[in-house]
UniProtKB/TrEMBL annotation, chain A:
This is Sugar ABC transporter permease. GO terms for cellular component: plasma membrane. PROSITE patterns: ABC_TM1. Belongs to the binding-protein-dependent transport system permease family. The keyword tRNA processing does not apply.
UniProtKB/TrEMBL annotation, chain B:
Keywords: Membrane, Transmembrane, Transmembrane helix. InterPro entries: DUF2160_TM. This is Glycerol-3-phosphate ABC transporter. It comes from the Bacteria. Pfam families: DUF2160 (PF09928). The chain crosses the membrane at residues 12-33, 53-79, 100-117, 123-139.
Length: 290, 140
């Protein structure tokens, strides 16, 4: 006879406690802050939905959201095709395949703030290789003052940091295609483009969906790298959502508006995460069904 | 035999879920009554734990209590009446829990849009959300 009891719940308890302290309690506190006002000293006064109303009509938040969407779109438009291109041209086996994989993985291992610092120095006109070279070539490049220079640097930095993730995922997808497909294509005298369009792309569909969603979610939450590189400047040019949020919450100590802001931000991230979850489970099912 | 032991385990779990939920509700009510001053009969918007941790007020406490209640209800339903996922208009497989999650998420966005567009009092948004939730449970 199969015995049933509920003892397994105790095994889940540590995780529940950990999640409670790292996620649930902070989230509840943010909800509480979002409907109250404080003048310090941990004294709170009821404000109702005023902060949500304020934030929904705040030009500042919509601007930050706009910049965020533009940023995420640009890096996706660059990183995904570039990653696929890199993956297609990486050696399939042998020593060089391993060398390439290690080299590709290196940027992913570097902590975010170190990436920011690397590019901050790299782009400096006086001591940085990139800034100095561009300056010597007569390009007016200064990421601390120029709008386009700041955006270009932030985007190139993100591309440098994360294209290898897309490339590695795409590479894994390519490696899983059996040789027979390529042989059949060869017999049919398929062009390089047809091979890509009708064999490789369909086989990479799953991993590329994961790569796009991962990169979108991560870029939507980006904070450390642009914060270290530009600090959100010049002006507000590279102030993305999370940078704006931190400025509001910790810089100005406007806890109420910042809490309302972060809850809206959280809702958007929840939607993206849910889509990600749905796609992942459906892919698993498809693979299981094959 | 297996059937009855399953039922017993279910009953224990239900007690383990409902009792704490009711206890938390009692604590919220007690805190609200304690926080009520002489000027108001009930502490709708006063701080439930002045100067304390997490800055609780009655409306947010009620909100989380109701969400917790929904989770308890759906857990009990999952134990008592297990179901198979189905495909709806979103063409994804959903269970009751998925539909609850979608309904809550939609409710969040509808409330925000209601406030942003100034469509009227916020309770009306809640009514709209309830109608939408019913539609989600039917169709999704």
């Amino acid at each position: 006879m199969k015995t049933e009891n509920q003892k397994a719940w105790f095994l889940v308890l540590p995780v529940l406690i950990l999640v409670a302290f790292s996620a649930v309690i902070p989230l509840m506190t943010v909800v509480n802050y979002s409907v109250q006002d404080t003048f310090g000293n941990n004294q709170f006064f009821w404000a109702g939905l005023a902060w949500f109303d304020d934030m929904l009509h705040s030009e500042r938040m919509w601007n930050a959201l706009g910049r965020q969407i533009v940023f995420s779109s640009i890096i996706l438009a660059i990183e995904v095709p570039l990653g696929v291109l890199v993956a297609r041209n990486m050696p399939k086996k042998g020593v060089w395949a391993s060398v390439c994989l290690v080299l590709m993985a290196l940027p992913l291992l570097i902590p975010w703030n170190v990436v920011g610092t690397i590019w901050q120095i790299f782009g400096r006109v006086d001591i940085g290789l990139l800034g100095y070279t561009l300056d010597a070539l007569g390009v007016d490049y200064n990421y601390t003052q120029g709008f386009y220079a700041a955006w270009a640097t932030v985007i190139v930095m993100d591309v440098w940091h994360w294209t290898s993730l897309v490339a590695l995922l795409a590479y894994a997808g390519l490696q899983s295609i059996p040789d027979a497909y390529y042989q059949a294509a060869k017999i049919d005298q398929a062009s390089r483009w047809s091979v890509f369009r009708y064999i490789e792309l369909p086989k990479m569909r799953g991993v590329l969906t994961i790569a796009i969603l991962l990169r979108f979610m991560d870029s939507f939450k980006i904070y450390t790298e642009p914060f270290v590189l530009t600090g959100g400047g010049p002006g507000n040019a590279t102030t993305f959502l999370s940078i704006d949020l931190v400025k509001m919450a910790l810089g100005q100590f406007d806890l109420g508006p910042a809490a309302a802001f972060s809850l809206m931000y959280f809702l958007v991230i929840m939607v993206i995460s849910y889509v990600f979850y749905i796609v992942m489970t459906n892919l698993d099912k498809e693979e299981g069904g094959e | 035999m297996a059937q009855s032991s399953h039922k017993r385990g279910g009953a224990g779990l239900i007690a383990g879920l409902v009792a704490p939920w009711l206890a938390v509700g009692g604590v919220i009510l007690w805190a609200a009554l304690r926080a009520s001053g002489e000027d108001s009969a009930f502490a709708w918007t006063q701080s439930l734990n002045p100067g304390g941790w997490m800055a609780w007020v009655f409306p947010t406490a009620l909100f989380f209590w109701i969400v917790a209640g929904l989770l308890v209800l759906f857990s009990i339903l999952a134990i008592r009446a297990p179901e198979t996922p189905r495909r709806g208009i979103l063409r994804i497989e959903t269970t009751r829990g998925d539909r609850l999650f979608i309904a809550l998420l939609v409710a969040g966005f509808v409330n925000l849009a209601w406030l942003a567009l100034g469509l009227g009092p916020q309770w009306a948004a809640l009514v709209a959300c309830a109608i939408l939730a019913a539609a989600i449970f039917r169709l999704v």
